[in-house]
Amino acid sequence: MVEILTSAQMRAVERAAIDSGTATGLELMECAGQKVIDETLRHWGIDQESPCSALILCGPGNNGGDGFVMARLLAERGWQVTACLYGDHDKLPPDARRNHDRWARSAAVHPLTRTIADALAPDTFIIDALFGTGLTRALDPKLAEILQELARKAARGRIAIDAPSGLCMDSGRALGYVLSADLTVTFHRAKIGHYLTDGPDACGALKVADIGLHSNFAPFAHTALLDRTAAQGAQKTVNGHKYTHGHALVLSGGPGKGGAGRLAARAALRIGAGVVTLGCPPAALQENACRLDAVMLHPLRDGDDLARALSDTRLNALCLGPGGGLGTREGGLLRAALHADRPTVLDADALTLLAQGAAGFDALGPDVVLTPHAGEFARLFPDLAARLQDAPTRGPAYSKRDATRDAAARAGCVVLLKGRDTTIAAPDGRCAINSACYDHAAPWLATAGAGDVLAGMIAGLLARGLPAFDAACAAAWLHAETARQFGPGLIAEDLPDTLPRTLRTLE
Predict the structure, then answer these.
(1) Residues 390, 393: Cα–Cα separation, whole Å
(2) What pLDDT score was predicted for residue 233?
(3) Number of domains in the chain
(4) What is the pLDDT of residue 86?
(5) What is the pLDDT confidence band of residue 222, given thresholds at 50, 70 and 90?
């Protein structure tokens, strides 16, 4: 897993490097400008010796200083460069002012006006060095109007340094108008806003450039971006028997409503649970027996039946909700499951029952995982969802990460809030993001039943003994990666059968 940072954390990293004497602000600025040039040439396949034209929009902070570095270095390569300053030269920070003055000794610095937009040549690169990660409010309306006019021009490409102007980098939410980019280059670590909400669409392609900084945040202090290392716990040990790998019980609905439960059960088995049982009403036994072989069946009429079944301590993980139903029987099953105090996944209908008061948050615990989509989250945590819906005008804006952490703290359990930017939080404050965007996009996951498979995968990992937060993280990464392995045409049934291919890549 890779740490991703807030804007304040990134400033702290830079300040620590400067205060320790390992780098000066000018050195960091010079390196940053060169890295953006390198990534631009690589992204567009431009030969090192081929001059182009660039319009560089420099802002009133150190991001603007990066822009002036780029102006000088590109001009030295023979590029036709126009550099504009938004703001007052006298108010620039010292390092940015040094680079402004260095450029101004040999070329003009233009004010950023509508005239600049009107004169833009169609094959010009627009380089956004206006605000970077430091933006905390919506763009001035006059500036937004100029940027909108620039965006309408047929520029060769738009490059953002650190962040597209108008985007809150602590939330990924637009603070009004955003000048979207084709390429965003950030430094040291990606920021939270690059991966959440509007961030991926606004950033275009994202590249993270190393400029020689180091950070040492405690795990609880930063947010983890999931990668393949999150799934290492899904590998099975070479010794033991089926029960040492756990026995997961997936609860299913009545006749004609068992498909979601069967998907979850197959996923739990595929991810390595030694034994999986599907618990269903007696009337649904025949239907499920016709569709399942390796998954065992157990009739469960009500919560009392479930309580008796759970006297078998080998049943060490539960999954409730996929196709489960919303009746009295299902409410009793939910209460019996939570009373048993086993690692448990609550998905779909179980979340609705929870929101309706069939059980309270006080019945949950750190071994429980809630897996809501946005609508289910709004039913469970309406005030937090409302804050996410309010249009922000200032930053740091309330983020999906914030909402998931607040929900986990309130419910006292792990919360996995699904989406392209799945966020996972534990009640102790740990947080991770699984991003199915940029090079890891998996649009084929937008298909019925995919969430049921994810719930089953988490349950299977819980049965194998993974802690709830680790199980949720591993399953989220494997779920999206498996969809990418399969590709177009994916339906939910394909996910459990493709999962072994993904697991083999971990070996």
Answers:
(1) 9
(2) 83
(3) 2
(4) 95
(5) confident
Mean pLDDT to the nearest integer, 207-230: 86
Residues 37 and 142 in one domain: yes
**Cis (ω within 30 of 0) for the bond into 396?**
yes
Q: Roughly how many angstroms between the first and final C-alpha of the chain, as a whole number? A: 17
Identify whether the C-beta of residue 208 lies closer than 8 Å to the C-beta of residue 245.
no
pTM: 0.94
Pair 253, 279: CB distance under 8 Å: no
Distances (CA, A) of 436 to 187, 215, 476: 21, 25, 10
- Decide if 393 is inside a domain: no
Tell me: do 213 and 283 sit in the same domain: no
Judge contact between 411 and 397, C-beta under 8 A.
no
166 and 207 co-located in one domain: yes
Helices 494-504 and 450-463: angle between axes, nearest 10 degrees: 50
Domain containing residue 113: CATH number: 3.40.50.10260
The verdict on residue 397 lying in a domain is: no
Indicate if 161 and 31 belong to the same structural domain.
Answer: yes
Q: Which amino acid is at 149?
A: E
Give the residue among 476, 362, 351 at the shortest CA–CA distance from 425: 476
Output the CA angle 12-199-435, nearest 5 degrees: 90
pLDDT above 70: residue 219:
no
Plot region of 267 (φ>0 → left; ψ -120 to 50 → alpha; else → beta)? alpha
In sequence order, the β-bridge partners of residue 435 are: 421
CB contact at 8 A, 58 and 64: yes
Same domain, 188 and 272: no
What is the CATH classification number for the domain harbouring 337?
A: 3.40.1190.20
Instruction: Tell me the pLDDT tens digit for each residue of 257-312.
Output: 999 999 999 999 999 999 999 999 999 999 999 999 999 999 999 999 999 999 99
Cβ contact 384:407 at 8 Å: yes
Q: Could you tell me if residue 438 is left (phi over 0), alpha (psi between -120 and 50 degrees) or otherwise beta?
A: left
Identify which of 293, 259, 291, 232 has the alpha carbon closest to the alpha carbon of residue 456.
259
- Average pLDDT over the chain reads 94
**Residues 214, 141 share a domain:** yes
Q: Is residue 424 part of a domain?
A: no
Residue 10 within any structural domain of the chain: yes
DSSP secondary structure string for all residues of 149-206: HHHHS--SEEEEESS-TTB-TTT--BSS-----SEEEEESS-BGGGTSTTHHHHH-EE
The reply to whether 178 and 256 lie within a common domain is no
CA angle 206, 209, 212 (to 5 degrees): 160
The domain containing residue 25 runs over which residues? 2-222
Cα–Cα distance for residue pair 341/310, rounded to 1 Å: 10
Same domain as 256, residue 169: no
CB burial of residue 153 (10 Å; 0-12, 13-18, 19+) = middle
Q: Give percent of the chain above pLDDT 90.
A: 87
